[in-house]
Amino acid sequence: MTKVHVSELVLRDGHQSLIATRMRTEDMLPIAGKLDDAGFWSLEAWGGATFDACVRYLKEDPWERLKKLRKAMPNSQIQMLLRGQNLLGYRHYSDDVVRAFVQKSADNGVDVFRIFDAMNDLRNLKVSIEAVKKVGKHAEGTISYTTSPVHDIPYFVALARELEAFGCDTIAIKDMASLLTPEITGELVKSLRAAIKLPIHLHAHATSGLASMSVLRAVDNGVAIVDGCISSFAEGASLPTTESIVAALKGTEYDTGLDIGKLQEIAAYFREVRKKYWQFESEFTGVDTRVLVNQVPGGMISNLSNQLKEQGALDRMDEVLAEIPRVREDLGFPPLVTPTSQIVGTQAVLNVMTGARYKSITNEVKNYFLGQYGKAPSAVNADIKNLAVGDAKVIECRPADLLDNEMEKLSSEVEGLAKSEEDVLTYAMFPDLAKTFLQERNAGSLKAEPLLTKETAATS
Amino acid sequence: MTKVHVSELVLRDGHQSLIATRMRTEDMLPIAGKLDDAGFWSLEAWGGATFDACVRYLKEDPWERLKKLRKAMPNSQIQMLLRGQNLLGYRHYSDDVVRAFVQKSADNGVDVFRIFDAMNDLRNLKVSIEAVKKVGKHAEGTISYTTSPVHDIPYFVALARELEAFGCDTIAIKDMASLLTPEITGELVKSLRAAIKLPIHLHAHATSGLASMSVLRAVDNGVAIVDGCISSFAEGASLPTTESIVAALKGTEYDTGLDIGKLQEIAAYFREVRKKYWQFESEFTGVDTRVLVNQVPGGMISNLSNQLKEQGALDRMDEVLAEIPRVREDLGFPPLVTPTSQIVGTQAVLNVMTGARYKSITNEVKNYFLGQYGKAPSAVNADIKNLAVGDAKVIECRPADLLDNEMEKLSSEVEGLAKSEEDVLTYAMFPDLAKTFLQERNAGSLKAEPLLTKETAATS
Ligand SMILES: [Co+2]
Ligand SMILES: [Co+2]
After folding, report:
1. Phi-psi region of A129 (alpha: psi -120 to 50; beta: other; left: phi over 0)
2. How far apart are CA A112 and CA A116, in angstroms?
3. Are A396 and A371 in contact (CB under 8 A)?
4. Closest to A287 (Cβ–Cβ): which among B217, B234, B261?
5. Is-contact B216 B248, C-beta < 8 A?
6. In terms of pLDDT, which residue wins out, A206 or B283?
7. Residue B245 pLDDT > 80
């Protein structure tokens, strides 16, 4: 028996992928007991976009959510998704902020830290991994999977070896764009298993309809843990269905040991919850294989489509889709995930809409060429780089090496407003949002965005 | 290279499973050229519930649909689903009707006949298979997959051997209830391949979220053809996604040879078509694994739920779900598919609602015990049978052996109304419906049920 373990992601990625990260803590707590008892390897419940959505839309204190979940799920490993040196924000933070954030996350209940970098620049992961190990928690080093001439199996194996050397406890393969095929998954897991000793954890989005097949091939090749989402928040842009994975392996040598009947109770609960958030549903929640043809993730296509619609230029979509892989090549083939997906997408739209490639160049692309996001996976286009930043000095070191400690400065900026180090960290992540949030919280006037009922929607 | 072939089912099972079989011919013809060019092994486009829906709701002549599709897809094999001696109706027909139906289906465009019986009583398939071979077309003998103490792999292998001996060209495994797991699929395909020479064709519904994994294991074990549905009509109660199957096998030794880009054009077309039929959508179209726990197919649960709701007894659902496997056992474990799913479901509801099992017994259950549907897979409960039919004489022979030829009689019943043998066959399938249909057609007053627009629905 080589039991396969399952991580359940309904509390984080499930609602992030399907209802714009809008699930409220009040809808998590009633089922937390059953989630806690189910026997998952971990429950991913924090980080990613949930912190942002709490502060921005739900007017919930994300740290309070974590504490409540911790209390409600005492027997489970709570997992969070952390963007390395970006933490949960959209810039690089100084190392003291990274350390403080990890410490407070651990203090308040996080057991497993899944840590990734959009560029796979491991220098951006090192400090957070060290911080996690220092507080005695589980560090999961993450490979952001993508395809390109440089992203072959030896490339990913080399990353995994370094993550192992960093002291990680497990290695995650993160396929946010749903690019993995069952065949590649099998080869990748097999190669990783041959090269490193750490257990492998697979995170494969279901968008292209390949994920459950990839899970099967990963299991065939010795994956230790697989991510799923309970059926009512699974498939489409989310993850493959937890119950189906459990059923597929039941009675085989890889049996997960989970009880499908208990999982169905959880699924039934969330099926009702999902209805409450209908206004955030996509029009089409089925399989979308476009990423396999034009390399552009489904979520990015939706965003671009909205952007173009606002400009009355939806008819330029095909040109933009063709331009994206070219911009990505100019930038040295970064994986397309926050923030690189936005950087590449916005520049591609500009290249199409202005009628001349790089006639106008965004600040983000300039910063990218200046090395502010880290090292590109392969050589960038020298001509375009020259056009963007001329001979300005490029950062060769780890970007955060240029940052002074900032916890003290951040604390002083919100003195009076912040009641705890957690508050300071919230401010560090989203300065403007957090100021308003903390003011309203202190004044007792926090109010979540309203949810539409079908009736109010029909009459408005 | 062991190329795997793909059958595309959007024109039949896709809309039957997801929008109550309501797709109109006018929405099929504009894309027929692209479907014809895609390179599918077959396009299932007729039979099943489509004939009924044409006559009942769409007021289309199903034979005209077939002719139009034949003309629009000259290079493809058109496939139909046929319920053996039941043809497309809900009773056993005499052999001359079966032969006439097969002849006319072939004349008008069907190339591949997929033939099944709800009981797996092969005597109910024999005449239609012979008729198909006689008109020189492809006969696909079908195993209706289910689970029970008698439905093990040797049982299915024995069925397949007999179907091979009948002269079938291929063998289909039909998993209408979504019960197949990847492991069982692998074993079943392997065992069939070892026992018979015919190519194996897999039809596995996606309801429980296992189908794409089962497809992968079937491919590993030498399946020749797999069924899929284009993404916009796939997954949930329908079949796994065609594009995903193609992508999963691309570049492997099993490469289907199909072009994903072309398939995406077809998917985009049907995504728009589906919107037109929004009123027939289920509330929840995701994965539903309940069948794996209580053995009751998802579609049956929905029907029962409606039945109980009408009686104000939705709170008895759990009792009904527990009763169904018991009734099924009393009946000798028939697979649950039309018409046995209705027979078992209705009796289970009665057993719960009357407060005493078999206090009231339906005529269908009585007929079942009398052998009118064929031979049960295993011994029926003798006490219940006695309660239902006493010592009435049970049919031991093939039920249709008791039927006299009836084409002449049927023809005379619709003399004047019917303009062709096809019309007589339409009348044979659905006598009352067809009379009205033919009258209106002859009078030029056929009118399809109206489709709701979102506007008219909101104001009504
Ligand atoms: Co994810
Ligand atoms: Co079917």
Report:
1. alpha
2. 13
3. yes
4. B234
5. yes
6. A206
7. yes
- Chains A & B: contacts with CB separation below 8 Å: 129
A251 touches chain B (CB under 8 A): yes
Report d(CA B71, CA B65) in Å as an integer. Answer: 10
Interface of A with B in 259-278 (CB under 8 A): 260-261, 263-264, 267, 271
Rg of chain A (C-alpha set): 22
Residues from chain B that touch A212, judged by Cβ atoms under 8 A, are 209-210, 212-213
CATH class of A5-280: alpha beta
Q: For chain A, what percent of residues have pLDDT higher than 90?
A: 89
Interchain CB distance below 8 Å, B183 and A288 = no
The CATH code for residues A290-396 is: 1.10.472.90
Backbone angles phi, psi at B165, to 5 degrees: -65, -30
Ligand nearest to the Cα of A44, by number: 1
Beta bridge partners of B44: B79
pLDDT digits (tens, 9 = 90+) for B299-346: 788 788 888 988 899 899 889 999 999 999 999 999 998 889 999 999
* Mean pLDDT computed over every residue of chain A: 95
State the virtual CA torsion across B293, B144, A232, B278 in degrees, nearest 10. Answer: -140
pLDDT for residue B454: 79
Asked whether A113 and A82 are in contact (CB, 8 A), the reply is yes
Q: Which residues of B111-130 are buried (b: 16+ CB within 10 A; e: fewer)?
A: bbbbbbbbbbbbbbbbbbbb
- Tell me which residue of B108, B115, B32, B135 sits closest to B426, measured CA to CA: B108
Q: Where are the beta strands (DSSP E) in B83-219?
A: 112-115, 138-144, 170-175, 200-204
Question: Among partner residues B243, B284, B458, which is closest to A287 by beta-carbon distance?
Answer: B243
What residues of A are in contact with residue B261 (Cβ under 8 Å)?
293
Distance of residue A23 Cα from the nearest chain B Cα, in angstroms: 18
Nearest ligand atom owner, CA of B239: 2
Mean model confidence pLDDT for chain B:
95
Residue of A nearest to B267 (CA): A288
CA B270 and chain centroid, separation? 21
Distance A45 CA to ligand 1 centre (A): 12
Say whether A234 and B264 touch across the interface (CB within 8 A). Answer: no
CB count in 10 Å sphere of residue B372: 15
- Is pLDDT at B460 greater than 60 in this prediction? no
pLDDT exceeds cutoff 90 at A304: no
Residue A1's pLDDT band, with cuts at 50, 70 and 90, is low
Contacts of B260 in chain A (CB under 8 A): 289, 292-293
Amino acid at A391: D
The ranges assigned to domains in chain B are 5-280, 290-396
User: Distance from B181 to chain A by nearest Cα, in Å?
Assistant: 6
Span from the CA of A241 to the centroid of ligand 1 (angstroms)? 13
Q: Compute how many other C-beta atoms are within 10 angstroms of the C-beta atom of residue A188.
A: 27
pLDDT band at B22 (very low <50, low <70, confident <90, very high): very high
CA distance B207 to chain A (A): 10
Cβ(A62)–Cβ(A68) below 8 Å: no
* Residue A177 CA: distances (Å) to CA of B14, B152, B245: 26, 40, 18
Query: Which residue in the set A216, A251, A264 is minimally distant from B290, CB to CB?
Result: A264
Contact call for B231 and A285, based on CB within 8 A: no
Q: What was the pLDDT predicted at A41? A: 98
A327-330: list long-range contacts, CB under 8 Å, 24+ apart.
A327/A351, A328/A148, A328/A295, A329/A148, A329/A381, A330/A380, A330/A381, A330/A384
Per-residue pLDDT at B459 exceeds 70: no
Instruction: Look at residue B265 and give its three-state secondary structure.
Output: helix
CA distance B362 to B230: 40
Distance of CA B45 from the midpoint of ligand 2 (Å): 12
Residue B433: per-residue pLDDT: 95
List of chain A residues whose C-beta atoms are within 8 Å of the C-beta of residue B232: 284, 286
